[in-house]
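Notes to self, diguanylate cyclase:
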Amino acid sequence: MSPQNPTDIARAALYQLTEDGLPPTPENYGKYYRKVSGEEAPQEQVDQNTCGPLLTMIRDMLGEASERTGTLASDLQSHNKTIKSSIDDLSQAQEKKRMLQLLGTILTTTTSIHSSVEDAHLDLAATKMALEHIKNELQESRHLMQEDWLTGAQNRRAMDMVLTKEVARAQRSATKLTVAMLDLDYFKRINDEFGHDAGDKLLQHLTLITKAVLREADSLIRYGGEEFLIILPETDINGAQFVMDRLKQAFQKTPLAYDGKPIPVTFSAGLARLTSDENGHALVMRADAALYEAKHAGRNCVKIAAD
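result:
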């Protein structure tokens, strides 16, 4: 038997989505919701707005829940009138037979109220669980979409949001904000000598070491290839330089061991402090320019961008 209401359809769609092991994106939610409900949407509509099907599913679920509560309110009002009328008649009844009839009406009406409330409670509880499931899955999906698949650092998509937020916060509260653009030295040589698997392991190793050094408020972003951006809120140039020194020490003490051989690694970095009249993009470009200065200066060093 196929689901009849939006909540049942949503739950069935969620179950099938999980069974098929597909990522919980809005597009997949909408696709499976239509599949279970038997509704087909034009392909161009799906392509234009992947969130549309999911919003339709949530709207239908909430509409069904609203209708259920509205019906419940109407039923309760009607039942209350019946009970009140029966109680009024009962107070005036003289015959035993009539009293039993009225008590039977009151009992039947009370049972109907209990049944209506219980059914509505179960339906609303199911709707709540389905919506919470969608919320949790979308949060996880959003997290995965903002994470670099290889290293676990944040990706460029996340960078735009984090940088915009931190720049706005720093300018609003007149606090310091510094970014560091970091690039592994001679990474191509490592790939050529040890293989690309070693290169991947080295990027993962760099991410783990860097995260261990950074604070919780800091952000590590894989900017591209072996290049990483570090966002340091409430940090001036001296504080950022201290972080770079700690990273250098951490890399020296814990080189990556690959096939039983340590792979020593150094990095070059460029630092830039946010000025009052620039945006996040300009800040990153200045840090990137300082990074290239560090590479031209012989690598394994840190350069500071002029304000």
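- The chain has two domains: 6-145, 156-304.
- Strands lie at 177-184, 219-224, 227-233, 256-258, 261-263, 267-273, 302-304.
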